[in-house]
Specification:
Helix content: 25-40%
Strand order of the largest sheet: 3-4-10-9
Distance between the termini: 17 Å
Radius of gyration: 17 Å
Number of helices: 8
Length: 222
């Protein structure tokens, strides 16, 4: 997105500066390349300088229609955080996050490119229902595979997380009415586009997803 010349405003719950999940620094997510893993902090530093260090408050932004109208698209990065901070309002209780739901509804209603990767698509479950039907009902999408999460939670040699996730992205989205598509084997690149929505399966889908998203935003802009 930066190479394409996009301006990137940022928003987070409470306007808080995001922190790094230590498990994200595993070589597993960088194609086992130490060079790529060691170069990642420089990318984070650049984003912090560009505005990630002073993000807007998601709750305020989601209710500001005039401000939202200025944006061409929305991108939600992956990791486990969206399952806590976006799917739910962690600062209140375990109910679905109405603020994030309102944000997604704006981009859905205006048919603006909406892009999510890895575990982030699960947060779409917080989007509202209209007329008794989830706004993404019947949409094709993808997300992190259940079998990979299970491996990272239970198999000693691969274990990265101390406890199982409370919610499984695939089951959650399917229960809401999504048509989830994934690669047969784990850790494969998979990008699914349906109407305004673009989703990527996992970190290995990042390059293909970025190209698809940039292309869609440019096409939408005309």
């Amino acid at each position: 997105m930066l190479k394409a010349g996009f301006e990137l405003p940022f928003a987070t719950p409470g306007g808080k500066v995001p922190t790094i999940d230590g498990t994200s620094c595993s070589l597993l997510y960088f194609g086992l390349s130490r060079h790529r893993r060691d170069a990642a902090p420089a990318g984070l530093t650049r984003l912090l300088t560009l505005g990630l260090g002073s993000p807007a408050d998601l709750a305020v932004l989601a209710r500001d229609g005039h401000r939202l109208a200025e944006y061409d698209a929305v991108f939600v990065p992956g990791g486990h955080a969206p399952l806590v901070d976006l799917l739910h309002d962690a600062s209140v209780d375990d109910s679905l996050n109405d603020h994030f739901g309102a944000l997604m509804q704006h981009f859905h209603d205006t048919e603006k490119p909406t892009c999510l990767i890895c575990h982030a698509p699960a947060a779409l479950a917080a989007a509202p229902s209209v007329g008794g039907r989830w706004i993404y009902d019947g949409y094709r999408m993808t997300c992190f595979k259940t079998i990979v999460d299970t491996m990272l939670e239970t198999i000693p040699i691969a274990r990265r997380f101390p406890a199982p996730l409370k919610e499984d992205p695939t089951r959650l989205l399917t229960a809401r009415g999504a048509k989830v598509e994934q690669t047969l084997l784990p850790m494969g690149s998979k990008v699914v586009e349906d109407r305004e929505l673009i989703t990527g399966q996992d970190p290995y889908s990042a390059t293909a997803l970025g190209k698809a998203f940039v292309g869609k935003v440019r096409a939408t802009r005309g």
